[in-house]
Specification:
By secondary structure, the chain is mainly alpha-helical. Strand 2 and strand 3 form a beta hairpin. The strands form 2 sheets. It has a two-stranded antiparallel sheet with strand order 1-4. The protein has a two-stranded antiparallel ribbon with strand order 2-3. It has a domain of 241 residues. It has 14 helices and 4 strands. One of its GO terms (cellular component) is plasma membrane. It is found in: Cell membrane. Keywords: Cell membrane, Membrane, Transmembrane, Transmembrane helix. It is a multi-pass membrane protein.
Length: 369
């Protein structure tokens, strides 16, 4: 009975989210604000994967900008080739300015939409799997894994800046079409938002299934007692690799959607700072819950836009202060406050009955002498 009730609550939650994302938001938000919400949903997709890897698996992934950037740049390469073909050019516009007359060899396959979509899924997944096996098999964890993943994000940003065939520090920008649809058309921009919303719901459903499955229990067991799991006959490295790879895949898909929604992608959006920003939203929302990372990422991104419009120089300090307060006083995030209250209410001792101050005395027994 309880499982049936939980299943109905889950479906009801997805229905409410679908109504808000597909019905209410397009009706009340302008085209510009709807595009901003689409960007926030892309961040939420990344956060859902981080919640799985970090919240359930204990892997502090400080390098999700690497996979986010891979997906964004691969999508951007296809969009730039498509724009060049429409204008009758053999190379994108920025290559003409840089004096590159021929399309580089590694660009050519991305002229195919099917290859691009396949690469967005396969390339980051393969890289994450190989990297995860190499790291976790050597039992690298904790702060060492966090530093390694952060170094990868920094290395990728530096590498992209030095690549003239990828736009250098300017990145790829000026996208005009998306698989044949004109991006300047508000209807098509709304279509991009709907795609991001649908992908977010699918990703949340996948993460929930993983968390509720036997694998999810093993992942939590690895986080809390890796040596005990190894003693029971399981390889913790393989369990970690699955979560790390899934998080990388979600980040790549989010980046591929982010590029056409925002209209450009630069090395500054895939380095250390964006990777930490993803983590801040997850920590504030509640990394061990299902919806905490998603809502936290959307909330932090919205707050950044809202407050930076009024206080451009002060938002960074406010964001850092909020992160310190949450981590220091609410380790489970804002989503854990309600659970903490319920736990305290359950453990609160019941009130003891107050004895009657003046009980009726028993009548004295008179014995015959």
């Amino acid at each position: 009975m309880r499982s049936l009730l939980g299943r109905w609550q889950t479906w009801a939650g997805f229905a409410v989210a679908a109504v808000l994302l597909f019905g209410v938001a397009p009706a009340v938000l302008s085209t510009f604000r709807l595009g901003l919400l689409g960007q926030y949903l892309c961040f939420a997709i990344v956060a859902a994967g981080i919640g799985l890897a970090w919240g359930r698996g204990g892997m502090l992934t400080l390098g999700q900008g690497v996979f986010f950037g891979l997906g964004a740049y691969m999508m951007g390469m296809h969009l730039k080739i498509a724009d060049a073909e429409i204008r009758g050019n053999s190379v994108p516009d920025f290559m003409q300015i840089a004096g590159i007359p021929v399309l580089p060899g590694y660009w050519a396959p991305f002229a195919s939409p099917a290859f691009t979509l396949l690469a967005i899924v396969v390339v980051p997944t393969a890289i994450a799997a190989l990297l995860g096996l190499g790291v976790f098999k050597r039992r690298v964890k904790g702060a060492y894994f966090a530093i390694l993943s952060q170094a990868l994000a920094a290395a990728m940003a530096i590498l992209l800046v030095g690549q003239a065939t990828l736009g250098g520090s300017n990145g790829l920008n000026g996208f005009r079409t998306f698989f044949g649809f004109t991006l300047s058309d508000p209807v098509n921009r709304q279509m991009l938002y709907f795609i991001a919303a649908a992908v977010l719901l699918v990703v949340v459903a996948i993460v929930r299934q993983l968390m509720q499955s036997r694998y999810g229990e093993l992942l939590v067991a690895v986080r809390d007692g890796e040596e005990r799991v190894r003693f029971l006959g399981y390889d913790p490295a393989n369990i970690k690799v699955v979560a790390y790879t899934a998080a990388a895949l979600f980040a790549s898909i989010a980046g591929a959607l982010f590029a056409p929604i925002i209209g450009f992608i630069t090395p500054a959006q895939v380095g250390i700072v964006p990777s930490i920003a993803f983590l801040i939203g997850v920590a504030i929302g509640g990394r061990t819950t299902l919806l905490g990372p998603v809502l936290g990422a959307i909330g932090v991104a919205w707050a950044q836009t809202a407050f930076s419009e009024r206080f451009p120089a002060g938002w960074t300090y406010a964001q850092g202060l909020l992160f310190i307060v949450v981590v220091g006083f609410f380790p489970a995030g804002l989503a854990g406050i309600g659970a903490l209250r319920k736990r305290r209410a359950r453990t609160k001792p019941a009130a003891q009955p107050v004895p009657d101050p003046d009980p009726d005395p028993e009548p004295e027994k008179v014995t015959a002498s």
